[in-house]
Structure formats: C-alpha cells, structure tokens
Amino acid sequence: MHRYVWLSYPLALDGPRPPAIPAPELTDLYTVAKDGAGVQILRVANHTGTHVDSPCHVVAGAVRITDYGPEEMIFTRPAVIDLRVPDATVLMPSDLDPFVERLQNADLALFRFGYGEVRRTAPQRFSTQCPGFGVESARWLRQTCPNLYAMGLDVPSVAVIACLESTMPAHNELLSGDGRRFLIIEEMDLDHDLSTLIEVRISPWLVQGMDSGPCSIVGVLADKE
Description:
Layout: E1 2-6, E2 25-30, H1 32-35, E3 39-43, E4 51-53, E5 74-75, E6 78-82, E7 90-91, H2 93-96, H3 100-104, E8 108-112, H4 116-121, H5 123-129, E9 132-133, H6 135-144, E10 150-153, H7 164-167, H8 169-175, E11 183-186, E12 197-204, E13 213-222
Parallel strand pairs: 6-8, 7-9, 8-10, 10-11
Antiparallel strand pairs: 1-13, 2-3, 4-11, 4-13, 5-12, 12-13
Helix pairs in contact: 6-8
C-alpha cells in the first residue's frame, strides 16, 4: 500500500503572492438562495499560487502547458534536495555540487528551502525575500542533469524576487531551446516527510491558449517498513 499527500496549496484569495501578481477574485454569478444553484466567477493570474511554468512562459511560440501529454506529468524518480540558505540568496553551482549524483539520477528535482513555515507566518517575507536560482546555477542544472525533465520549489519563483532583473533569466536558461519540454513548478507544499517519496503526479489547469497555469500535485509515498 502507498500513501498520498498534496504537494500543492489550495488557491487562496488572500494567499501570499509576488508584488507583480494581482490577488485572485471570486464572485457569485448565481447563488443557491436566489437561483437554486451556485455558479461563481474566478478571476486569477495564471502564475498564482502553486503553478507550473511551461517554456511558452518566457519563449514566444514554445511549448504550452496544453501541449503536454498526461504521461509527461508523472515522475517516478523524484529527488528532494534540502537547501538552507539566507533570504534572497542566489544559488551558485557550488551550492548544488554536493547533490550532483542524486540530481543526475532524477527526472524531477524538488528544492526544499524550508519556506513553508515562512509562507504561513511571514507571507510578505515569503513573497519578496525567498532564495532561488540565477543564470549560473540554472545553467549548471541544465548541463549537468540532462535526464531532468522538471523541477519544483517551495518558494514563489525559481528566480530571486529581490533581484528579479538579474535572476528572471534563470527561467530562460531552463526553458529555452528548440522543442524543449522542461517544467518549473513554483510554490509547492513540501512540508511533509518525503523520505519515501516514489512518485509525483501533476494535474495542471488545461486552458487553450494559456502558457502555464495553476496545478494540483499529488505525492506518492511508499509505506515505511
């Protein structure tokens, strides 16, 4: 038997978000009291909360999230990488070197900075001061781990929001390239015991014309003996 955990957060109207992302809005179109059935309208930026970036996020005409098959959203060799660094740290290749063997054997890398607690207790800090990747560390990951098809993080962006101008190109480093089908999953809930994680399943919103989108993520855990 296996156990299952959510590795994504429910979309929240008052959830933390980077400064450039507007708050979601949820309004009633019809209600049970007035109309006998409820229908609501959700207005949300597609990079809100737990979401998955496709190459089209930063490369015009590249692969969109709706171009992926369901088999490309299932990962059976996940590696959880724990990194404890100060706020707004831009990772360097030397930060990743100790994990090279695990990363090279993985199809999905989950970088856990321990910012789930920050998300709960200091949402403004979470939204503006989280660590992440720069161009050099993104290039190291791409060049050193050719069997890696996706990465996820427990922070709101793979880039470092405090120095976004210099680190936003980390997206391009990871996602650019003819036919590139890499995925970046941002703002994951990794506050679980993931020592027996054997599989990760991603279910993105599928909206025609949308480059990337919010997603639900399930982690499959093997029972401990």
